[in-house]
Amino acid sequence: MKYYSLNHNAPNVSFEEAVIKGLASDKGLYFPESIKPLPKGFFENIENLSNEEIAFAAIEQFVGDEIPKEKLKEIITETLCFDFPVVPVEKGIYSLELFHGPTMAFKDVGARFMSRCLGYFNRDKKDSKNTVLVATSGDTGGAVASGFLGVKGVEVIILYPSGKVSDIQEKQLTTLGQNIIALEIDGMFDDCQDMVKKAFLDESLNHKGLTSANSINIARWLPQMFYFFFAYKALKHHNKKLIFSCPSGNFGNICAGIIAKKMGLPIHHFVASTNVNDAVPRFLVNGLYEPKASIATISNAMDVGNPSNFIRIQEMYNNDLEQFKKDFSSYSFTDAETTVAMKHIYGLNGYVAEPHGAVGYLGLKKELESHENTIGIFLETAHPIKFLDVVEPALNITLPIPAQIEAVMHEKKVSTKIKTYDELKAFLG
C-alpha cells in the first residue's frame, strides 16, 4: 500500500515512511491509494470472530507486507487489551464506551497501535531516534504518553494549552517522566497544533526525525475504525440500520468510521456532533468551509476551530457536497445544552455521560427524528472521571476514582512553559 499527500505535491510513500514522517513535505495529510472492500462473507460471519481477528482483517490492507502478519497480529493483540462495551441507554440508543484502556480515553487504541508500529520500524536502528511531537486538547497527550512510555528510540514531546485541559488529563501527560516531555503552551489547542505543523515543515529540524502522534498520522488514525466493526458485531442481531454519532473535534473518529463504511461495513448514516466550534455544521448549511479560532467549552477535546481530518472526509466523497450529505450530518450544541443532556441521560437509568458523550447523544437524537426503525450509537470517548469538575456538580454525584487515574493523581507535575514557535524550536534544538 502506498500513501499520497492530499495536497498532491509530494512523492507517494510506503506505510513505514508515512508513519515516520507524519505529514507530507507539501504540508498535506497522507491518504491510502485505495480502500478495498472486505469480502461479503466477513460481515456475514463477523459475530463469530474475535476483536483481534476483526481488527487484523480491517487493517491488513493498509499495512501490507511492511510488518509481517504474525508481528501485526501481536501488535493488534497488545493494542486491544481492554473491552469496548455497547451499553443500552434508552430504547434504540446505545453508548459505545471507548474508555476502558490504560488512560481511559478512545485514543489508547491509536496510540498503542502507532507506538508498537514505530517500535517495530526502529528494531534495527541503533543510533537513530524519532521525536514524536504531538498537540493535545486533553486526552491525546495522556494516551500518547502511556502508549509510548519506554519505547526504544522514541522521545515524546507533548504540547498542551495551559489551563485548557482538566487536572486529571494534565496529570496523565506531565507525570510519567522517562522519554515523555510536556510543554505547556500559553494559548489554545489550535496554537499547539499550528506549532506542531510548523515544526514538521522546518527543514532546520530535519535532524530530529520528527513525527506526529495526532490523528494526522495514519498509524494513530486508521485503527480508530476498529470500534465501528466491534459495535456492528454487537448489534448485528437486531437487523436494523445503524446510525453512529461521533463527538467531533479533529474528526478522526468519524473519518475512520467512513473508511470502515467504504470497506463495506453496513453503516447507514454518520453524525458529527460538535460543540460551538462549528466549522463543519456551518459548511453543511452554506457550502463554505470557514475555520475560526477555537472557543473554550466544557467539552474541551472538541475545542478545534480547523479540524485536520475533515480534508480526508472530503477526499472520500470527491469534494461532492451532495453525495457527502447522503451519508453525513453535523450539528452544533452549546455548553448549556450539553449540561441539560447529561442530566437527562442520568435521569433515564443512572447512566453517567461526560460532556463529549452528551454532545454525541444530542446529535444522535436530532438525527433520529428523521430515521425510523434504526439503532443509534453515540461514542463515549472518555471516562467521566476525566471531567469530574463538570460531571459531579451537574449530576450532584461523587465519582469513584478508577485505579488508572488514582495512579497519577498524586504524582508531581513536570512541564516547561513556552509561548512561541521560536521557543519550541530552541527547545527541540
3D structure, described in words:
With 429 residues, the protein is α/β, with parallel strands linked by helices. It has a domain at 82-103 and 221-401: Rossmann fold (3-Layer(aba) Sandwich). The protein has helices at 15-21, 40-44, 51-63, 69-79, 107-121, 139-148, 167-174, 189-200, 218-221, 226-235, 252-262, 279-286, 310-316, 321-327, 335-349, 355-368, 388-395, 403-409, 421-428; strands at 2-5, 13-14, 30-32, 86-90, 93-97, 130-135, 154-161, 180-185, 210-211, 241-247, 269-274, 328-332, 374-380, 416-418. It has a 6-stranded mixed beta sheet with strand order 4-5-13-10-11-12, with helices on both faces. It has a 5-stranded parallel beta sheet with strand order 9-6-7-8-14, sandwiched between helices. Helix 11 links the parallel strand 10 (241-247) and strand 11. Helix 4 (69-79) runs antiparallel to helix 5 (107-121), helix 5 (107-121) runs parallel beside helix 6 (139-148) and helix 15 (335-349) crosses helix 17 (388-395). The chain is globular, with a radius of gyration of 20 Å.
